[in-house]
Amino acid sequence: MVNQQYTGENEQFVRRYEYGEEWVVAADIGVNGDHVDVDVAGETAIVLVDGETQLEFDVPGSAESVDTNNGVLVVRGSL
After folding, report:
1. What are the residues whose beta carbons fall under 8 Å from the beta carbon of 38, sequence distance 6 or more?
2. pTM given for the model
3. Where are the domains of the chain?
4. Looking at residue 43, what is its pLDDT?
């Protein structure tokens, strides 16, 4: 199943996928991992780019991993 949400002032597009007991949230943030910090508090992920809040989005549970690759942020967890 794919869920979509828009977040931030510029209506950034975030997709959430569910695969059995695993979920994946992907967001095109346009910058590489060197400039990105992600904090997950409860069911909200807060993405900071160069120290400023870039976007916030909902996650369906605790995050187990956070990666960036070519400007795409990927957060993974278990349901």
Report:
1. 45, 46, 47, 48, 66, 73, 75
2. 0.79
3. 2-78
4. 86
